[in-house]
Every structure is written in structure tokens, then in C-alpha cells.
Amino acid sequence: MAHVHETEALHHPHGSTPAEGALIAFDDFCFAYDETVALRHITLDIDAGDTVVLMGDNGSGKSTLLKAICGLIHPQQGSYRFDGAQVTEQRMRDASFSKRLHARVGFVFQDSDAQLFCPSVEDEIAFGPWQIGLSEDEVSRRVDDTLALLGIGHLRGRAPWALSGGEKKRVAIACVLSMNPDALCFDEPLAGLDAKTQAWLLGFLKQLKAAGKTLIIATHDQSLADEVADYFVYMGEYHGYGDRPHTHINL
User: Fold this and answer.
1) What architecture does CATH give domain 17-246?
2) Which end of the chain is more exposed for a tag (fewer CB within 10 A), N or C?
3) Interval 90-106: pLDDT, tens
């Protein structure tokens, strides 16, 4: 039976300050590319295990918010904390701190080609675990486990540039999962994929959700949003977070 939830239940409560204990907490976060505002006064908290869907028009700041979560851009006003630790440009210059953050937060880019750069699929998946200093045995175990999880063991020795779009997407996800992060950010995960790969990826996102991973997904795809979202974050033309009426149906 379908259960229709009232609008108030769809939006994560947010106030003037982030909630205590939130895994991801933005407080009056502002960021601009030169003179172009990308994020304006974002105050938002995301708890561990939440599946959050970012929605809004192109250029509204969804991808920039994902980059902020992953520590790729930094507040020019306000703050961002991950699991209580403030993430700043200065702290990200500390190799130990940045490695810990990147081990706990993964980012799957919209364009897989922007994420893949190693000579083989095996090397791609091993790259992150090597970077955080895991042992050779542990790196090997993670590569094997991730190849099996994504069903891409047959691609182990292939060059990423020679793969299909769907195969590249699976490898990009594998690279992130090999770090066993707590939170995963996806930027338009279904874009450019055929129907079969879209169906697979939707099912895989549901598996990650069921496993308790924190998911932050930027998408224009309303059907994807309705399938997986615990709540929605709407990015408006003013590059801020604002509630909008919406009816969400859980089957």
C-alpha cells in the first residue's frame, strides 16, 4: 500500500544553527566563484543514515554543495562540520585530516571521465586505499571485494577509457566504495545511462540506503527522488536552501 506523507514530513528540520550530533552540518555557509555567488547562507544538517535528494534548476548550487560536503571547496563565510570536526581550507592542507575526511566521504561525479585516470580498473579502485596508507593485503582485499560487489571482476585489467558509459559509472562507484565511506555524494547519477544501467543503479542506491550509508544525491530525476529520498533539499535561484511543497509517496 502506498503511504502519502504530508509536506512537513518531507523536509529535514533546520533552524538558525545546525543540530547537535549531525553528521553533516552547515551553518550560514556562503561561497562564490570569484564574483559569482554559488551558495548563499546555507544552514542545514544531515544525520547519519539519511538519504537526502538535492533538487533545483541548473546553476542553483547543488553540485557546489556536494563539493563542500567533500571538502573540495571551503566557506568564505559561516562554517561546515563533518562529524563535529570543522572543515576549512587550512585544515584540509593537513594531509592526515584530509585523508580522514576523504576516507569517510565519497563523491561520484556526474561525468565518470572526470574521475577516472589510472591505466587499469584495478589500479583505479586501489588508488584511494593506497592514498590513505592501507597495507598491501588490505588494499588487495578491498579491490577484490569491490569488484565482486559491483559485478565488474571481468573488467579488472581493462583500461577505463575503453569502457562503456555504464561500465565507467560502475568503476567510478567502485573507486568510492573501496574506501568504505560513511557518506556518499552522487551528482546526477542517472544522467547519460541507458535504461538497463539506470535500473541497476537505482537498485544499488537502495542497497546502500538499506545498509545505513548516508546518501546525498543531486538530481533532476523526480522518479529517482521519489524512490529513495528521506527528504528533499531545494536549491532556489538565489543559491540558498528553501522548502517547497511536494508530495512524496513511499511504496
Assistant:
1) 3-Layer(aba) Sandwich (3.40)
2) N
3) 999 999 999 999 999 99
